[in-house]
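[[Encoded backbone]]
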Amino acid sequence: MTERLTIDHVGHFGDGVALAEGATIYVPYALGGETVDVLPSPGHPDRRTLAHVVTASPRRIDPFCPHFGTCGGCAIQHWQPDAYRAWKLQLVIDTLHHTGIDCEVGELIDAHGTGRRRMTLHARQSQQGILRVGFAAAGRHEIIAIDHCPILDPAMHGAIEAANEIAELLRPVSKPLDIQITAADNGLDVDVRGSGPLGTELLTSLSKLAERHDLARLTRHRELVIMRKPPVVRVGKAQVTLPPGSFMQPTALGEATLAELAFARSKGAKHIADLFCGFGPFAFRLAEKFKVSAFDSDAAAVTALQNAVNLTQGLKPIRAEARDLFRRPLMPQELRDYDAVVFDPPRQGAQAQAQQLAASRIALAVAVSCNPATFARDARILIDGGFKIDSVTPVDQFRHTPHVELVARFKR
């Protein structure tokens, strides 16, 4: 039985929010000001499923992907771009305000560029033997099979077809099988997770598949299965061989934009500590002007960075070290070696490191974040420790989702 609701606004996760009889109800794919008919969402008393838009918002547009609304990858394709951008900017402003941080927030920078250059596809086999390869459904424990994804970079061409063939070869998929695919500059880099041991016959079949789809490398749980050519990416002046299954910013423009913002905010420094450095997307660009010491818990990424340093000319010195900054953050006495810090932690933020920065004599810190909530928490620590925040720049490389990146400068 349907229920009629009036949507008040779009919430922080991209859902329409209705205020009905003192309760807050969330309706995915609904927009502020709309009247909608909804159905119950089993297991979620505060959520509804959109059945019909009775009165549409004038800012509603047609989504460009046929999978939108079933695939859980994108939350927003149905909103006029200017309204979407204003909403995403407001997410940042509201989060900072909630933590008591008063600073200038710049205009949202669109860094989608040519699209996503990495993805993880899931393969699941039903009890009836039907194999589905695709993305997780929106709000449901099932896989939506896809034949294309319009937000992918052209360099990902053929990735979905390759994933489907890999899943077919690894049948039966009785357990979750995840296929991470990254577009390197010279081919696709694939890491398979969840498969059992690979026998000789299967290895032969996978080798032929790699040839057909021009895969640069195929790994299983980051262990090498097939290497046709080392997968490489250009990072500033350097060419880095990707570690298997490594993290990489989702868009090339997003990586470049974040690094350019961090570079610009590091002016005046001489020796920079690059914390949570990965394989060097900030370090190599910073080293065009500054001496850099880079730290990350991912030893393979640090090794890839150091190997690329040894082959790259025209940079200031870069030193790389594997170190768990969650358990062993750089302490104030160690931070005396630097006059600036750039840190780009995972979504959980850098609370332990922020506490040590606040206790140190570092005068300049540049924070990069993919989570406004943990950024605000860490920023509060720095501000309470004597730093002043001058501005925050939001960056949108996760277009069509509620995710947003931030870059901010803190000075004493």
Observations:
- The CA atoms of residues 112 and 397 lie 4 Å apart.
